[in-house]
Amino acid sequence: MHKTKLALALLLGLASVPAVAQDIKVGTIFPLSGGAGPDGQTVTNAVKLMVQQINDKGGLLGRKLTVISKDDESTPAVGVSRANEMVAEKADIVIEGWNSPVTLAMQPILARGNILDFTAVSKSDLILSGETNPYAMRINSSNGFDAEVIAKYVAQTMKAKKIAFLTQNDVYGNGFQTAVEAEFKKMNFSGEVIMTEKFAFKDTDFRVQLTNIKGANPDAVIVTSSSNSSGLPALVDQYRQAA
To answer: Could you give the CA distance from residue 221 to residue 45 in angstroms, rounded to a whole number?
Structure first.
């Protein structure tokens, strides 16, 4: 969370401090319900804890911080609504992003509202492309970075020759698969991708996809899922049953 504190300092460096210091409004937009709800709650609580610690030490440059928390429900349209609410409530900074499609939908709104926007978790490489927010910042690894690590592990450590993908069918999952395949190509990977099965973020039944993958008998299965509290646990259990 040190980068969050740095972001707040940068914000104050860009804006003049009024004669009567007002609270700095720190917005958070994460899924607080649904398949990623517990994860979004954890990140939101971390921000609130850091804000409390800063306030306990006198605030930032003499100004107290207040937190505005909103639930994007892991849905781009809802995220857009929440971003507009942040603009209306005059948030100074927004820390957002568990699902890449939601982050990408919110970025242009926060940029037009002159709100400092930090992405916390969403990994799509498009987030930092500058197309929706030229000043976008992210504090975690990207799809591209992760793909390099995974591709090397699968090819060099596992020495797998037949690869199957089980991919979340959105900009996050599809982008990650594309990035991994690009890394395989750069490595002159001698194996092959024998199958790709896809699913929606909200899915919890993967038995058809897993049956198809099992029939293809791959050496490694690369799974991409951001539903850490719902879909992913179900997928792991069903994978064990199918094995």
So the answer is: 34
**pLDDT attached to residue 20:** 56
Instruction: Spell out the domain ranges in the chain.
Output: 2-138, 143-242
Q: Would the pLDDT of 195 be above 70?
A: yes
pLDDT (tens digit, 9 = 90+) per residue, 70-120?
A: 999 999 999 999 999 999 999 999 999 999 999 999 999 999 999 999 999
Q: Specify the fold of 143-242.
A: Rossmann fold (3.40.50)
Please give the CATH topology (third level) of the domain spanning 2-138.
Rossmann fold (3.40.50)
- 143-242 has the same fold as 2-138: yes
User: How much is the average pLDDT of 130-140?
Assistant: 86
